[in-house]
Design a protein that fits this description.
The chain is an alpha/beta fold. It contains seven helices and six strands. The chain has helices at 16-28, 53-64, 85-95, 107-112, 119-125, 156-164, 175-184, and strands spanning 2-9, 33-38, 70-72, 99-106, 127-131, 144-147. A six-stranded parallel beta sheet has the order 3-2-1-4-5-6. Strand 2 (33-38), helix 2 and strand 3 (70-72) form a beta-alpha-beta unit. The termini are far apart.
């Protein structure tokens, strides 16, 4: 049985924190691959993607291109409306028989799990893996595996803010991501 980790998010833009989490979970849980799944419209926050879906997708592909076990899963970008994990995972399970999925979430989302749509059914079809994020707790009433990852306080909003202020993002994102952002004049650069 194939073991696939799913890391969802807006990836607006993708950064080294995303890559570190994915790599640590891949190794710690002996997964075959990590699929980065950019969402169309996260139900827990207002859609405010600063750039087009095409640019987010291109940035994500650039960010993961040097890792043979990292892939992009576009299922949520291809659907309209809010991206609910339960519906997405049902579709992925149907499409990929003989695959065990592990859904990777940060501690900020662990605290939010009780509010997820169909959470009781979701924990029956997918194994959650929680990772620590600064200033959040990881305790949950739901069954979670935990992976220790280096806590690096990088966020997409921090990167967008730094770009708007004309500050450097070197070493916060892969060089290929930074180059694409500058070339396309994204995020107010």
């Amino acid at each position: 049985m194939k073991r696939i980790g799913i890391l969802g998010g807006t990836f607006d833009p993708p950064h080294l924190g995303h890559l570190i989490i994915a790599n640590e979970v891949l190794a710690a849980q002996s997964l075959n691959e990590i699929w980065f799944m950019p969402n169309q419209e996260p139900p827990h926050k207002k859609k405010l993607n600063a750039i087009s879906d095409e640019d987010r997708l291109n940035l994500l592909k650039l960010a993961i291109r040097n890792h043979p076990n990292f892939k992009v899963e576009q299922i949520e970008l291809e659907r309209e409306g809010p991206s609910y994990t339960y519906e997405t995972m049902e579709l992925l399970i149907e499409k990929h028989a003989n695959t065990q999925f592990y859904f990777i979430i940060g501690a900020d989302m662990i605290e939010y799990l009780p509010k997820w749509r169909h959470i009781d059914q979701l924990v029956e079809i997918v194994q959650f893996i929680g990772v620590q994020r600064p200033a959040y707790r990881t305790e949950s009433i739901y069954p979670l595996l935990y992976v220790d990852v280096p806590e690096i306080e990088i966020s997409s909003s921090l990167i967008r803010s730094r770009l708007r202020e004309g500050k450097t993002i070197r070493y916060l994102v892969p060089d290929s991501v930074r180059d694409y952002i500058e070339e396309k004049c994204l995020y107010g650069t």
